[in-house]
Amino acid sequence: MIFGWDYDRYYIIINYMKLAVFSDAFLPQVNGMVSHLLETLPLLSNKHQILLVVPRPRSKIDLLTELKNIEIVYLSGIPSYIYKDWQITLPFSPYIQKKVSQFKPNIIHFHGPLTVSLNGLIFANQKHIPCVGSFHGYFMEPEYLKIVGLDKFGLHKSKLLNKLLWKYSNIVYNRTNTIICPSEATKKDLIDHGHNKPVVVISNGINLHQKKELKIKYKLPQNYFLHVGRLSKEKNIEILIEAIKKTDKKINLLIVGDGPIKTTLEKMVMNKGLSKRIIFLGMIPYTQLPSSNIYKNAIAFITTSTSETQGITILEAMREGLPIIGVNAKALPELIVNNGILCDPDNIDQISKSMVLLNEDKEMRQRYAGNSLLNVKKHNVSNTVRKLESVYNSLI
User: Fold this and answer.
1) What gap in Å lies between CA 111 and CA 127, rounded to an integer?
2) DSSP bridge pairs for 333
3) Which residue from 122, 139, 302, 365 could staple onto 325, CB 3.0 to 4.6 Å apart?
4) What is the pLDDT of residues 244-278, one digit of tens each?
5) Where are the domains of the chain?
């Protein structure tokens, strides 16, 4: 039940809707928000008409076949000086307002609190259209403030800045009808910091039925732990590198992904003499990973991020039957339940000892692997879409 609305009941009676979606991130960017959109929008578009407003890409992109029946409108902007992967657009674009007005949406759903999303929020408030806002990341917390370089001045830990950015989040999300977040931990944070609109927990969702025939084989090291994700400061990958250094020399680390600090991490690995034990594979499309031997041969998936609202790469690893090593922060304790090991944040000794333990204990690995497959079932993207439709329907 949600606000007196029964998910299953409304899943049955929901009819055609016109949904305008605004996102501050989209292809060619690769992050949790984009992955969530790529998983949910194709399923929603099977029943509903969708207008997607996103930043104009700076390079040509090949849209997935699943997006062909979704109208995409691009909002031009300029690269952010402090974080080049994000674009600064007009928060109120007459062009976008006209396009959305012609579309005549029943629901506005924005992802992220930045300038593209503000276009959707302003339109919804002006036209009195129900509006839903998804909270995807702790942009006000030290882990994210390091991304924009504030750690160079010690400002990433500024309590005043943290308070001001939470205030900004309140201003944006409290003008919606409903706030969506992917975990109970995030819901509690939002409520504790003054978000006064109903907060609904809906998993980001993941496709549990991807074909997994082995098509792509990479030359991989023996006895490796796997990390997949964006190589950015908030992921605390340097902690993971330090942990590998303290383990047995037979234990290796495979890192899949790209991002603004990849070069810095590669230099760190080289300077510590770990180039043979820590391998950077670069960016691999998430649709190709399940059909490769990367998950199949890994000991476990490992993350040292302390700022996850959920963690889609963790869900992907669980879907592939991997044990998980993570840290006891934000949403990770909700995902690592009898299927892996939780360590104290930034505790290099605990992390390294956990890696050694899983490497040596085959029975433990098998037990955790089985539990990952069980736990991930509730995150099926079809359930996510069903719950989103129920929220939309309750507001129309």
Assistant:
1) 19
2) none
3) 302
4) 999 988 999 999 999 889 999 999 999 999 999 99
5) 7-205+380-395, 224-378
Query: At the top level of CATH, which class does the domain 224-378 belong to?
Result: alpha beta
Instruction: Burial-class residue 311 by CB neighbours within 10 Å (0-12, 13-18, 19+).
Output: buried
User: Dihedral, CA atoms, 369, 41, 291, 374, nearest 10 degrees?
Assistant: 20
| DSSP code per residue over 73-86 | EEE-EEE-SS-TTS
Question: What does pTM read for this prediction?
Answer: 0.91
Distance in angstroms (rounded) separating the CA atoms of residues 317 and 301:
6
What band does 78 get if pLDDT is binned at 50, 70 and 90?
Answer: confident
CATH number of 7-205+380-395: 3.40.50.2000
The answer to whether the bond into 57 is cis (omega within 30° of 0) is no
- Matching CATH topology for 7-205+380-395 and 224-378? yes
Q: Please report where in the chains the tokens 């992802």 appear, as a residue.
A: 111
Task: DSSP for 302-365, please give it.
Answer: E---S--SS-HHHHHHHHTT--EEEESSTTHHHH-SSSEEEE-TT-HHHHHHHHHHHHH-HHHH
